[in-house]
Amino acid sequence: MQIETSRGVTERRLDHYVVRWIMKQVGNPNISIRLWNGDEFPVTEARPVACMELRGRRAVVELLRAPGVGFGECYSKGLIEIHGDFPAFVNEITAALTRKKDRSYYGPKIRSILRAISANSHERSRHNVHHHYDLGNDFYKLWLDERMVYTCAYYDTPAATLAEAQVAKLEHVCRKLNLQPGQTVIEAGCGWGALSMHMAEHYGVNVIAYNLSGEQVRFATEQAAAKGLDDRVTFVHQDYRRIDERCDRFVSIGMLEHVGLANFSRLGALIKRSLKPEGFGLIHSIGRSHPDRTDAWITKHIFPGGHIPSLSEMMKVFEPHRFSVIDVENLRLHYARTCSAWLQNFEAESERVAQMYDDEFVRMWRLYLAGSMAGFQSGTLQLYQVLFAPHGNAHVPWTRHYQYRHQSQDH
Amino acid sequence: MQIETSRGVTERRLDHYVVRWIMKQVGNPNISIRLWNGDEFPVTEARPVACMELRGRRAVVELLRAPGVGFGECYSKGLIEIHGDFPAFVNEITAALTRKKDRSYYGPKIRSILRAISANSHERSRHNVHHHYDLGNDFYKLWLDERMVYTCAYYDTPAATLAEAQVAKLEHVCRKLNLQPGQTVIEAGCGWGALSMHMAEHYGVNVIAYNLSGEQVRFATEQAAAKGLDDRVTFVHQDYRRIDERCDRFVSIGMLEHVGLANFSRLGALIKRSLKPEGFGLIHSIGRSHPDRTDAWITKHIFPGGHIPSLSEMMKVFEPHRFSVIDVENLRLHYARTCSAWLQNFEAESERVAQMYDDEFVRMWRLYLAGSMAGFQSGTLQLYQVLFAPHGNAHVPWTRHYQYRHQSQDH
Fold first, then answer.
1. What's the pTM value of the predicted model, to 2 decimals?
2. Distance from CA of B378 to the nearest CA of A (A)
3. Distance between CA atoms of A260 and A308, rounded to whole angstroms?
4. Which of the residues B103, B328, B409 would you substitute to probe the A interface, choosing the one with the greatest number of A C-beta atoms within 10 Å?
């Protein structure tokens, strides 16, 4: 039998009360709580999907001070531990927050942990990527597909692997663009160059691809030379705003999230200047179902200048320049599956990553990948592919049959 | 040799000057002008596509007073006559205005004739339709397809007739909705009931369809009874805002244009209340590539309360309620072709229409149909089909292949 002072009893009661209050703010997820003193209790009557251990009172203080940021930092540093299925835990927190947020749309009382756990921890990773760009390609090679595509895949068939789904995504984009041999394509924000090379190799187009990352441009240039595509693909180590060529097709995959709302109309002006009147283009971006501001802390520390737009916000790229939006497809569930595949690959290599960096790094990335997956699964995050044409272009495809004929799957 | 007083010469010069000034405001279309005194001159050096005859100085005064409204009224009353290809004339005016408007996006100097000639004369006709609802079904039977579908058709194949393209549209909508036997569908604004009956007959769903027009509801109810569908389709003579059933699918074709921007969020709230969490819906509406206000005169006299939205404006239906937009398709060129087919049918019956009503009525409808066609052809008007689902619905179709398998073309 344990003997406690009355002060001890009061403190314990207060700890339980505060933790339960925090769980209420999170929408009462079906998890159990374990405290630093060994106390354990479920948050709801339902069977808990996992157990969250708070390893010290400091974790409670951090959660109170800044729910989202606090959780991310505490988990990364090991002040919070999750016992059981980690992705299931993150999914459950995200779902609970979504349920809660849904009820309080017009006047949310607390800053949502959601942002840090899903959307903003996604953004957070972008920052980490940026922060750790000297991590270099070796890190990404551990868990991306062989083509190093770091955007949403397209699982054309249910049995597809990640690598197959990334090729299917490249194909899906090429089909939507209705590429014809000899055309000029500008790609803004080309990553490691997979799409540029795919377009040149399989569709016979000439590509000019812009990227701010010197390391990626170096990698892509080497790859293009090795494949004998360097006469048709040019990688330019420049900001997209320096584009001054004219093109038949404009494409940008996963760049808009970094552009910032204030620059959307400027991006549209640039596209209008570049794109021939009978051309068209595609922008692929993470989005939201409704506008949501990015947390001040996130904007400052994690994702400077970036913004994940709703569709109405995306229209700021197109409407001021009278582009005609001809096709929008939402692939959010494909991105949930992509993140899940990345997370699996990452976990399989986590010991190696811990050796390369440290355990905090591994926990941060785990949270980021699981949080992104939960965001797309729950609908906190969306993935829009928007096909658009200059005003009055009557040469746009007549129906969307051309996207589904799969005329060019010869690779 | 003609002898003129110096006053006559001055007047003539002034007439020419004023007419040329008006043509400049319209963007100098490639037409020729014939004046009441027999003077004839081309506006540009290019070969004119048609000749616009101004049959009195009053036409000039009306064009100066209110360009769009003035043209419509003068043409309807015969104060202006078009010699040559009427649709080509309207296309050329619309194209000239679009070119001009494009150059002066941020500070248009004149009220655009465009509105009255294309977008607003479309709206105008809606008013006329409304105004002349006692025209009854006989009038529309003269030039619509046999199913009386008064919205954009879908020309699935290039050789399709209007009737085939309307059936293809019904099919396209049904496929997008992924209808399953036994489901409940709410249709808001059902016209003469073609879609409701098609869904019930070919997809085995139960339909509750709302319509404000008593005459259309009577017609549709009779049709459903004749086809033995009255156990599965209920036509309700009520405003869509009175919907209080729950449904698996929500569909609305060509109603949003009449709802008015201020009611968009209210419509979204109603859909959210009606639609089951695992359901989804489709809204089909005329739209614009960018927001544009409706002329005050038009709002007052022609299209009260209505508004043709841009995509960002359409999002006011979805974003406040966190609907996830899963698919947008723009069918503007299909609507240009639909209007062209309607115009052809109408012209073939114009003598009969003139006997039923009068010549002014015929000219008004001709202008409306040709103007709408030109609006869709030039891109002044767009046609959006938006598929959407409640927030977090993970039961939406995985890809769009299901829309292109054509599993149900057994009719």
1. 0.88
2. 5
3. 8
4. B328
